[in-house]
Automatic annotation (TrEMBL):
Basic and acidic residues bias: start-end ranges: 548-563
Family the UniProt entry places it in: Belongs to the ABC transporter superfamily. ABCF family. YheS subfamily.
Keyword Nucleotide-binding: yes
Pfam families: ABC_tran, ABC_tran_CTD, ABC_tran_Xtn
Keywords assigned by UniProt, alphabetized: ATP-binding, Nucleotide-binding, Repeat
Domain ABC transporter residues, every copy: 2-246, 313-527
InterPro entries in the record: AAA+_ATPase (IPR003593), ABC_tran_C (IPR032524), ABC_tran_Xtn (IPR032781), ABC_transporter-like_ATP-bd (IPR003439), ABC_transporter-like_CS (IPR017871), ABCF (IPR050611), P-loop_NTPase (IPR027417), Val-tRNA_synth_C_sf (IPR037118)
Organism expressing this protein natively: Ectothiorhodospira haloalkaliphila
GO molecular function: ATP binding; ATP hydrolysis activity; DNA binding
Keyword Repeat annotated: yes
Stated name of the protein: Probable ATP-binding protein YheS
Amino acid sequence: MLRFDHLTLRRGTKVLFEDADLTIHPGWRVGLTGANGTGKSSLFALLQGELGADQGECSLPSDWVIAHVAQEVEASDRSALDYVMDGDEELRRLQAAVAEAEAAQDGSRLGELHARLDAIDAWTAESRAGRLLHGLGFKPGQEVAPMASFSGGWRMRLNLAKALMCRSDLLLLDEPTNHLDLEAVLWLEQWLGGYPGTLLLISHDRDFLDRVVTHVAHIERGGMTLYTGNYSTFEQARAEALAQQQSQHERQQREIAHMERFVERFRAKATKARQAQSRLKALERMTRVAPAHADSPFRFSFRAPHRLPDPLLKLDDVNAGYGEPAVLQGVELSLHPGERLGLLGPNGAGKSTLIRLMAGTLMPLAGDREPAPDLKVGYFAQHQLEQLDSQASPLLHLQRLDEKAREQELRDFLGGFGFHGDQALDPVGPFSGGEKARLVLGLLVYQRPNLLLLDEPTNHLDMDMRHALEQALQGFEGALVLVSHDRHMLRSVCDELLLVADGQAVEFDGDLEDYRAWLAAREKAAEAARDATREVGEQSAASRKARRRDEAEQRRRQKPLRDKVARLEKAHARLEEERASLEADLADPGLYEADGKARLQELLGRQAQVNRELEDVEAQWMEACEALEQAD
């Protein structure tokens, strides 16, 4: 089991948490929650041996294998499949050992290695890696593509697949859904549900936590508390605890006020002085109950757009894509103020293409895009985080949008997005992904759009910021189109769902659970089609496979005989060479003199022995050749 015993962890002078006592049993799936900066990732670093405990101990079994998702990946020519298979480190060690044993012709060692390979089911490793890639959204054929051909987001998926490939005892996942679409998130939920080891998961996705974890470890105000149940159960338990704490605080404050009034009133009276002193000492000894605090550090709302034309945007029989064939065909869509539209669809089906078409950054291949004259688009996409001016501060970014605004007004606005004090003046280059995402959202909000297009806006955002964004979007007066793998966000802010699949964008008649069922049915149909194609291929190639199988079996049976023939031929050649050498020596006249008699006898004896060995080898060679002919 994993144990924290009076564990204290600091970063610099800041105490992240202290005196934490926690026991996590094998097989538990624990969600690690808490605001950004409370120490979740630092705890992962501690478990991986990258940090040491400042006080207390962190212990786990010495033979546990720990898997985690690397943050970087090499841009090499190795295939995606090979890279993912590297996650099973024991498999790779065994494969290297087999190669060494074969080179050394160590049969005993080979037997031991093959027994271990059987024990770890090594023969299915390649298919297991392929299934991981498929589940995380890679298309058939991409498993052989070189690592260098994938973008950063897809390389992170490869890192995730590599971590899942490891036959680990402890799996550490830090925001694993950030680079996934909804389809891959649903697959990952199912995979983690069958994971046999112990899982520690950092995530700000409520639905994902609800479906995956069995316990929640919450870090708050320097403490760590373990709750049994999923995230919804934790939220309810925490809310009840906060309410109880607040009630105790208020009751204690009333008691303190009463005692203080008594002391002030009677401490000067001789008859009451002893009672007043007693109450004063009681006040000093009292353990104060802190007020409950669960307020979000973020507060903002969308100001009313300057204009709200109706409709805001129309797409009339539009084809869209990046050349022929089009990704989307015949799209019909009209967006009106107040509409809340969530886009669903498999990876690569065209959701981001449709968003870019609405934003005007992608022109139609055919059909008409008809924006209203007063359309003002607020478009959020992940690439915009990297387009921020790394040398400029949040305040300067905002001042560039509104040069006439007073600085204090802009700083107050930025405070609603968590940029307080000097951070509003710091350059954004060193900011985290979450801080950059908050700034981009703030810049969008400030510009008063009447059409919001949000493509995965929750990546890198913590729970508090996601909740603040949900609240703000619910009050937004314009139209909203949202792509997100965060189902809680989709349910909270979207009234309609649009399914983007098979080149079409049509209204989806159902909810997110119906979409899960739709994906499952689609995958089942695709698997059936693949099986049918495979069966046809197998039938057409049946005779070739049978012939190859027979030929392989024949080669297997003949191999010992062929090896024997080759060995006898080598022995025969060696003996013939020795006999020729003896004959050359016996041709020396000096051997037949009186002093060469002993040498002569020695050579004649060896010649007779070589002739006998040659006869024996030739006989064996003939028998082996006849046996080989009969085996054909």
